[in-house]
Amino acid sequence: MEYMMQYMLLPGRVEGGIMLVDMSGLTSSQLSGSFGALTSIISVLANHYANRIFKFYTLNLPMALSMTAQLGLRLLSERQRQKIEIVKDVRDLRQEFALHQLEEDFGGSRPKAEQFFPYPLPAGPFTAGSSEGARPDAIPAVHLALTAECLQGRPWDPALSWEENRRLKFTPAAADILKGHLA
Questions:
Q1: Which residues are paired to 114 by β-bridges?
Q2: On the CB side of 93, how many CA atoms lie within 13 Å of its CA?
Q3: How far is CA 103 from the centre of its chain?
Q4: Which of 32, 127, 132, 160 fits a disulfide with 164 by CB distance 3.0 to 4.6 angstroms?
Q5: What dihedral angle (degrees, nearest 10) is formed by the CA atoms of 71, 76, 80, 84?
Q6: Distance CA 135, CA 33 (A)
């Protein structure tokens, strides 16, 4: 989450992440600690990253843990329940994500990720169910075009206009990175 907040979210924009938690391969001895671990993850996200998670998908939940989770969901508020989804069939995720954004074992067309930092982010389209694949004309390394101040955010200045407060600041490398991509 810290990496995402530092390098991927723009100040002045409301952005939230989606988490996929794959519970496949858990043994019966791991099951007893899994619910506690999952509860801890949700607690940290709720307390330290409030309003940053849009949806929390739990995949391949073992049957015993699934029954416990269903009972646990009843203890949550309606808003909390809206954010948590226990996925019974990974193909259902195709209704939520572009296929090239989802790994093959989650019902998509993307090979399993082997590298996680920086986040491997295929380009759009991001339309749910899209099978077009990543845009070949997407600008690579565009994050390097934004300054650290832009990435970290800044306080809203009431003396500035709405446009000035939301204006992005670019690095000296931005001209080369964006060359030929802007109208």
A1: none
A2: 30
A3: 14
A4: 160
A5: -10
A6: 41
* Nearest CA-CA partner of 58 in 77, 78, 85: 85
Decide if pLDDT at 23 tops 90. Answer: no
Q: Whose CA is closest to 146, among 4, 3, 8? A: 8
Q: Which residue has the tokens 């391969």?
A: 25
141-166 in b/e burial notation, b at 16+ Cβ within 10 A? Answer: eeeebbeeebbeeeeeeeeeeeeeee
In which region does residue 51 sit, left (phi positive, over 0), alpha (psi from -120 to 50) or beta (all else)?
left
* d(C-alpha 69, C-alpha 59), whole Å: 12
- Output the pLDDT for position 21: 83
What letters, b where the CB count within 10 A reaches 16 and e where it falls short, cover 110-139? Answer: beeeeeeeeeeeebeeeeeeeeeeeeeeee
Distance between CA 66 and CA 64 in Å, rounded? 5
Which amino acid, 142? Answer: V
**What does DSSP assign to residue 62?**
-
Neighbours of 8 (CB within 10 A): 14
What is the per-residue pLDDT for 100?
Answer: 94
